[in-house]
Amino acid sequence: MFKGKVVRAIMLISTWAATAVSAQNTESLSFPKDQFTIETKIVKTSNGEKKVTYKSYMHIPYVANPVDKDYQSMNVSVPTQVDGIRIETSNAPILFVIGVGGYMSVNNAKGGGFGPGGPGGAGPGGMRPNGPPPGAGGPPMNGGAPGGRTAGSAGPIGGGPGGNSKTSGKADLALAAGYVVVTPGCRGRDNVTSDGKYYGKAPAAIVDLKAAVRYIRHNKGVLPGNTDRIVSTGVSAGGAMSALLGASGNSPLYDTYLKEIGAADADDNIFATAAFCPITDLEHADGAYEWMYGAFPVGTSGLVDQQISKELRALYGQYQASLNLKGKENFGTITADNYAQYLLKSALIPSANKYLKNLTEEKRRQYLENNKWITWKNGAVNFSFADFVAHVGRMKSMPAFDNFDLTSAETIEFGNKTVNARHFTDYSLQHTAGNKTVKVDEEVTLAVHLLNAMYFIGQKNEGCVKYWWLRQGTSDAHTSQTVMANLAACLENNQKEVDSALYWDAGHGADQDPEEFITWMGKISGFSKKTDAVKK
């Protein structure tokens, strides 16, 4: 299903790491079970507010040889009481909140209490305090988060917001349900030392997240919660990392990286994965974007170069055919030619139907009046794919990910210790080099594979999780709607259990059913608050 030379590229691993601190600085891999503070939190649920008391473990290093402990550490939140009722967490699932946005770093040392990444979480982004200022060897400030916005405006991260102001986000709801919440820091594309050396380029983030999982498993019976029931969640680039963590469990391709930072000698597969608007499958994302948005203008800037768009669409057609994915409900093989029909049937029209049926008659009338491209007849909607895409609108220039001037978040993610940004597709490299025969380096090819969940699913990695929760907004133009649809179809074709849905008219980072997610976590993990969490 997937092609690429990986074996020889693994020999290049030893050149990858940049050390910001001495490798001799080792840390204990034992969980400090007695080093916590007691915190309280009011959590809003559909059944009213819940007062949660929890143990807060802050800034715990999860590797023995950290490159930078501020990033390679985690916070752990363990509920002890909910509304005054004592909680037992020894068998509780563990929500693993990935706070990555725009492939930026997550500085765990900046967390305090409940940060934007969930309980105790620190948001993404930010250079180490001793790093150079913008323009002095650091990452360029125009390296935006996926979708063309600056990294600092990449939308919700970590647990994400609730569906509305009536409920809290997933991390808070997890605590109220009696679950343990872990929020790890990790390195990212923006990490740079005071002398201008980068130490968080791909695949550093996923290596760190795997090391954090290994730390949790290594401390089974000491760290609260069921270490065999780890469920990851992330948004945008964090959604891509969550999907990757779920797909690549125990892959030996990461072993050398993990050994170098002193990761625990334990498994790194998890139990289930939630991915919200995952910015993944990057080596094929440019073609997928042109397939969906190529005929539509970028705001008021007009159409992109149609010849280049056509070439990228052709490459995408070849890729889609190579996947040989079968659609739901006996749809048959999904191709570039019939993908619009498949998206309409399997996801878009069901999402619109659900949205409109839940409106009052007057609000539905107003919505249809404002969206005349949608027809409503006998309690069901209908519309064309072209009208839908025009409604959403294109937001990115071209190429959307491996852009020619090397300013995108993704090209910066694939830099190395001394080079801030590199092309990661042959097409963009050949275009900028003016040479149709040049290919990206094997080191880059390996990094691209190590950041793509689709690669490991295609390779039928044995550590790939069984349970998946996938969500995206229909008005999210950060990537093509085919990206998550391909991920879902690839998983379903490999007999995984996938709960996938689109939020109608919702944008990037939307999370409209956090309580349903918490219920799903309890169901698949076999955890019942009534029987497992409450102390008698």
Automatic annotation (TrEMBL):
Short name of any one Pfam family annotated for the protein: BD-FAE
Signal sequence region: 1-23
Region ranges (Disordered): 115-168
Annotated ranges, domain BD-FAE-like: 176-287
GO molecular function: hydrolase activity
Superkingdom field: Bacteria
InterPro entries: AB_hydrolase_fold, BD-FAE-like_dom, Tannase_B
KW Metal-binding (keyword) present: no
Keywords: Hydrolase, Signal
Gly residues bias (residue ranges): 115-128, 138-163
SUPFAM superfamilies hit by this protein: alpha/beta-Hydrolases (SSF53474)
Protein name: Alpha/beta hydrolase
Originating organism: Dyadobacter subterraneus
